[in-house]
Write a structure and sequence with these properties.
heterotrimer; A mainly alpha (248); B mainly alpha (221); C mainly alpha (61); A: 248 residues; mainly alpha; 8 helices; C: mainly alpha; 2 helices
């Protein structure tokens, strides 16, 4: 087995092909894990003693919340690499991840709200976690709109990378301050932390759903990064060669 | 260090020539705060409860709206590019400009705030805490806002964009600023909140000038 | 097995509306994202091939 030349894949042209080969695998994995996760969530995991069947929302809510945070961190890492080493591909990866991260933040918000309504009687509670989730969603929106507002790709890459880094440094500060604010205004707080006592199967279902979301994210991000590469490199020779060969 | 003094003197002088900018921001703040009693009704207890939050949110918006003029004049006449080329530390230049921005947009708000607090029926002690929290908090707003202002330099629709970037980052300052007044009126004491605000200020002083300088380089290159 | 019948499954112990809207909306959003992406790809490819044709016709002249 020959040594893999990693640098080769850092160039957009070769990564385009590599990503195309990886997408079907991750998509298939995502479907398998979604099926298993949903099966465990709805058919294996027992009814919760306190919350009845409503708790089953946890199987989409918590994985979405995890993913939204995780994707933001990954985005910031890619942004940092892009700024430090001036690699175009990592900036493109960060941009490809952002919309999916925002999507997960949004899913976490409204599933939280649909869970809150039957449990607490209101659609929205200013609980520390929901509030930080909302702010995380705002951070995604800021990143995406800055990136979209700058036409020059190089400036857009670097400016959005900087705001992602500033954001990720601020996330712990924001989380801490929202937590503080929440404990101060006890009246309004009904906490998510009193989640149902986890049965082993519940945890397994959540984990499988989280992996499914992760695989989904990878597949979608790779698909999107291919589009970004094509848009950026449309004047290059390899793209026109690809076009004449007939794009698949 | 002499560059810092130079920037401070130059920007102060320029700001003094355009006093109307300062007044615009100040009156925005005053009008904004005065709208709330009209919106929620004149009940004393309610106004007392929301007063600190209202003053703080208005300060946030006023400081954000004035961010546009932090770099835009120097950007359009090319001075900023010269500053980038000069061998002195860009972070120091940014720090100086941000300080002047705070003097001309943040400080007037701080001085006006106790008067507005009176409209909301805040007690004497609460007014002092409000003053202290704004004094510690508004420089953080200018410092963090400078990052957003430099990233959106010269972009169409930059004004709205800067609010999307900067307002989420202002949230900790809002929480601890308004919280300080609440804590003091409820008898908990504002020391905790004020010291966190102080810590945020130190953190912002250390970290944000570098980030803004990097952002300026990105925007102008 | 948790559910005696299919209708019990849909009913979700009285929480059917909340549970199914959460999951339904989430997966609808996934589908929507995929739809947007494939649409974006189609329009991009169309545009690229037009540019290609334009370049080719200019080159042959």
């Amino acid at each position: 087995m020959g040594k893999i030349n990693w640098y080769k894949y850092a160039s957009p042209a070769s990564f385009y092909g590599l990503a195309g080969k990886m997408i079907p695998g991750f998509a298939a994995l995502s479907i398998v894990f979604f099926v298993v996760g949903l099966y465990i969530g709805f058919f294996v995991a027992p009814t919760d003693a306190q919350q009845g069947e409503a708790y089953r929302i946890i199987f989409i809510h918590v994985p979405a919340a995890w993913m939204s945070m995780f994707i933001y961190i990954v985005m910031a890492v890619y942004s940092g690499i892009g700024l430090a080493f001036n690699t175009r591909l990592s900036a493109m990866m960060a941009q490809a991840l952002a919309p999916t991260g925002a999507l997960f933040a949004f899913i976490a918000l409204f599933t939280g709200s649909f869970w809150g309504k039957p449990m607490w009687g209101t659609w929205w509670v200013w609980d520390a976690r929901l509030t930080s989730q909302l702010i995380l969603f705002f951070l995604y929106v800021g990143y995406i709109s800055l990136q979209a507002a700058i036409d020059d790709p190089r400036r857009s890459d670097r400016a959005s990378a900087l705001i992602a880094l500033v954001g990720v440094i601020n996330v712990p500060i924001i989380y801490f301050s929202v937590k503080w604010w929440n404990t101060l205004h006890q009246g309004a707080s009904i906490s998510f932390t009193k989640a149902p006592t986890m049965a082993y199967t519940m945890l397994a279902g959540m984990l499988f759903m989280a992996i499914a979301c992760w695989m989904y994210t990878i597949a979608v991000a790779l698909y999107r990064v291919r589009l970004i590469i094509l848009e950026r490199e449309r004047h290059s020779i390899w793209v026109s060669e690809l076009l004449t060969e007939g794009l698949r | 260090m002499s560059i810092l003094v130079w920037v401070l003197r130059r920007d102060m002088m320029l700001a003094m020539r355009r006093k109307s900018d300062v007044l615009t921001t100040l009156f925005f703040f005053v009008i904004m705060v005065s709208l709330f009693p009209l919106g929620v009704g004149p009940e004393r207890e309610l106004l007392k409860a929301i007063g600190p939050g209202v003053v703080w949110v208005a300060a946030l918006l006023a400081s954000m709206l004035s961010l546009g003029r932090l770099f835009s004049a120097d950007y359009s006449d090319g001075t900023l590019e010269q500053m980038l080329l000069c061998p002195e530390s860009l972070s120091l230049i940014v720090l100086g400009k941000t300080f002047v921005h705070w003097m001309t947009s943040g400080l007037p708000l701080v001085l006006m705030a106790p008067l507005l607090g009176l409209q909301f029926g805040l007690s004497g002690q609460a007014l002092w805490v409000l003053l202290a929290s704004l004094l510690l908090g508004t420089p953080v707003l200018s410092l963090v806002g400078a990052i957003g202002a430099s990233l959106t330099l010269g972009l169409r629709g930059g004004g709205v964009l800067v609010s999307l970037l900067v307002l989420p980052l202002y949230i900790p300052v809002l929480i601890f600023g308004a919280g300080a007044v609440d804590a003091s009126t409820s008898g908990l004491g504002a020391e905790g909140h004020l010291s966190v605000l102080g810590a945020l200020l130190v953190l912002a002083l250390l970290a944000t000038p570098k980030a803004s300088a990097a952002a300026l380089r990105i925007s102008l290159e | 097995m948790n559910w005696g019948s299919f209708s019990a499954f849909l009913h979700m112990g009285g929480y059917g509306f909340y549970v199914w809207s959460s999951f339904g909306l989430s997966f609808a959003l996934f589908a929507l994202e995929l739809l947007f992406l494939s649409k974006r790809r189609r329009t991009l490819l169309k545009r690229l091939s037009q540019i290609q044709k334009m370049n080719a016709s200019r080159g042959s002249k």
